[in-house]
Amino acid sequence: MLSDPLFILVTLACFGVLVVLLMGINSFRIGGEYNRKNANKFMRWRLLAQFVAVLLILVFVLFRRQAGG
């Protein structure tokens, strides 16, 4: 499975969600003007990254189910 390009893409997408989430948490940690300026931007990026990751996971499951059955 580790050599499957779609699995690698799903893993990278999930890692991207984690990175954006940590950027948002760091924005809350810094607080002040930086947080007011960037909090919504990081939330939108995270939602978009999660949407892409979930779509890729669904495509991966669909292809694996078809290949196995």
From TrEMBL:
Q: Which PROSITE patterns match?
A: HIG1
Cite the Pfam families for this sequence: HIG_1_N
Segments crossing the lipid bilayer: 6-25, 45-63
Looking at the record, the residues that make up the HIG1 domain are: 1-69
Asked if DNA-binding is a keyword of the record, the answer is no
Coiled coil regions in record: none
Keywords tagged on the record: Membrane, Transmembrane, Transmembrane helix
The record, for InterPro entries, names:
Hypoxia_induced_domain (IPR007667)
User: Which superkingdom?
Assistant: Bacteria
What NCBIfam families does the database record attribute to this sequence? Answer: twin_helix
| Protein name, as recorded | Twin transmembrane helix small protein
Taxonomic source organism? Rhodophyticola porphyridii
Q: What is the lineage of its organism?
A: Bacteria, Pseudomonadati, Pseudomonadota, Alphaproteobacteria, Rhodobacterales
